[in-house]
């Protein structure tokens, strides 16, 4: 890890968050169902999803659509300086840190991500190698090594970029989902 890479990440996060403030909503309900099916994940199997904050693409309708289609949906519970915890989304939510909405059900532990057939990963940007820039907590970087399935980052079309600063701990994703391009397998 170099301080140069860290500074570049911080500058990029500020720019990307500012751009998201004016962005139109991107609910992604039908796109996510198509993406999950494209990975041959079938109802009854587990999908780790997320509820958007700060202009992230996606929506509550997106996780409701997965649940209604019969998928077992896990949502993250943020634990400081630790891997994410997870709980089944049963339709009920409560408030979490950073304006996050978290599942109200019983926490399953951080190893629950290993039960997923697909993980939808929120991000500020993704590059052509699969390097992902997140909100800066390192939560997904601690959790994704526990997953054994495809990792699909979800960003807006203009947040899928040729190159991002990468550090050794950055877990690379296997694909990106954007509103216009749909699923793009990575690295390009
Ligand atoms: N939708 C979503 N859920 C998620 C994540 C995420 O990136 N997106 N996380 C990924 O790890 C975890 C939460 N981690 C977070 C870590 C830091 C901040 C954060 O610093 N937020 C700023 C506000 C950003 C803004 O202005 O948009 C803050 O609170 O000041 C947010 C979430 C788990 N759940
Ligand atoms: N596997 C890990 N174990 C311990 N600390 C980690 C790990 N991965 C990342 N971190 C720490 O988390 C902090 C944030 O990392 P980074 O900037 O890569 O976050 P991010 O990928 O944007 O966040 P997130 O993964 O939550 O979306 C850094 O201080 C980093 O050292």
Automatic annotation (TrEMBL):
Keywords: ATP-binding, Ligase, Magnesium, Metal-binding, Nucleotide-binding. One of its GO terms (molecular function) is 5-formyltetrahydrofolate cyclo-ligase activity. Its EC number is 6.3.3.2. Signal peptide: none annotated. Its cofactor is Mg(2+). InterPro entries: FTHF_cligase, FTHF_cligase-like_sf, NagB/RpiA_transferase-like. GO terms for biological process: folic acid-containing compound biosynthetic process; tetrahydrofolate interconversion. NCBIfam families: MTHFS_bact (TIGR02727). Belongs to the 5-formyltetrahydrofolate cyclo-ligase family. This is 5-formyltetrahydrofolate cyclo-ligase.
